[in-house]
Automatic annotation (TrEMBL):
The keyword Nucleotide-binding applies. InterPro entries: AAA+_ATPase (IPR003593), ATPase_a/bsu_AS (IPR020003), ATPase_alpha/beta_chains (IPR050053), ATPase_F1/V1/A1_a/bsu_nucl-bd (IPR000194), ATPase_T3SS_FliI/YscN (IPR005714), FliI_clade3 (IPR022426), P-loop_NTPase (IPR027417), T3SS_ATPase_C (IPR040627). Its main location: cytoplasm. The gene is fliI. Keywords: ATP synthesis, ATP-binding, Bacterial flagellum biogenesis, Bacterial flagellum protein export, Cell projection, Cilium, Cytoplasm, Flagellum, Hydrogen ion transport, Ion transport, Nucleotide-binding, Protein transport, Translocase, Transport. This is Flagellum-specific ATP synthase. Residues 158-342 form the AAA+ ATPase domain. It comes from the Bacteria. Its EC number is 7.1.2.2. Pfam families: ATP-synt_ab, T3SS_ATPase_C. Probable catalytic subunit of a protein translocase for flagellum-specific export, or a proton translocase involved in local circuits at the flagellum. It catalyses: ATP + H2O + cellular proteinSide 1 = ADP + phosphate + cellular proteinSide 2.
Amino acid sequence: MLPLSTAVAGLRARPLDQRYGRVVAVRGSLIEVEGLSGAAQIGARVTVATAAGPIEAEVTGLDRGIAHCLPFRDPQGVAAGARADLAAEQLALRPSSAWLGRIIDGLGRPADQRGPLLLGAQTRAIRAAPPPASRRARIGARIETGVAALDLFAPLCIGQRLGLFAGSGVGKSTLLAMLARWAECDVAVIGLIGERGREVQEFVQDDLGADGLARSVVVVATSDEPALMRRQAAWTTLAVAEHFRDQGLRVLCLIDSVTRFAMAQREIGLASGEPPATKGYTPTVFAELPRLLERAGPGAEGSGAITGVFTVLVDGDDHNEPVADAVRGILDGHIVLSRRIAEQGRYPAVDVLRSLSRSLPQALRIEENELRLSARRELSIYGDMEDMIRLGAYKQGANPAVDRAAALTPRIEALLCQTKDARASAARGFAQLADILAT
């Protein structure tokens, strides 16, 4: 039996009253609950009773005494009149260093069949504000990623946020895994948002590998899960990254993909009655994107930093579609993966002419930046004349600059080509680039 003092303390810790309502309607995935007026707030948790067990939900809208709730799993089994209890506390996490090497879901629960998670002492809100702009440190020194195309042409710095823009099947997940294994950081936090279920184990076991997983926390919400869980997984990814940042560590935060986070927010907004705006995306989508992405970056002076790489799945290879355009304006640079380059067999399929890092030119030494600009110039000249050269419309000797570019471009492209198991060295890459340009 429990000691009397323990029982008294437990009773005192419980709320004096328990607010609950009743389900009055279920419309698709939206559960409407009556009886929570004056108590339910946006973001509050609700537990709906069903014959198969309770379902956790979140209040996403309020309308004349009706609370609009979206569940964290399939609402199958919810009946009219079912009891809906309002939770006393907001959803929160208690991350710890013991989470390294683990796979969790959007609610911070284990998803790898390896037993319960060891919880930390500090409770952290899943949805949090970024550090105040006036207290944030500046972007730090360059970090070596092990990917030649990035280290040579679009360097990544501590606390910087890059967008990885690509269509489906161009190799963005493989590139993310290369960054997770090789980039200079203390901890990697990886969010797989809306991924295909079968690809999760392939990513963890084949692409990430045992060494990459050992220093990583992987947050997973597959494409079949409700929109609320997919959105929650993105927030959880940043919350875990913030935990390690506040310990003074250099954190690499990878999210694949921001587009699926936006799609989840669109589903939530439409279910709550928001009007569709740009290409069907609701206004809250474009409000939530900066709130999510701004959480990455340098921390306050004296703390660590979150270096972010966020993939954007461009619809129909249209890099000007609404989500891509909005994300590009928020982040500190963009990496473009080209389907044309992938079809030519060069991986990673980074289009260096369309990619940009806003840490340049400060991220590179003067001589390195001169090599980068010279190589870009040769690639640009060849790109302008590539179609004519392939069609045979250009005759060699007509323009010395084009002749030089045509000779050097294949060698530069070969330098940028690497397999997912071959780590590149930035110093060796610049040395090879200097040799190529010296000919």
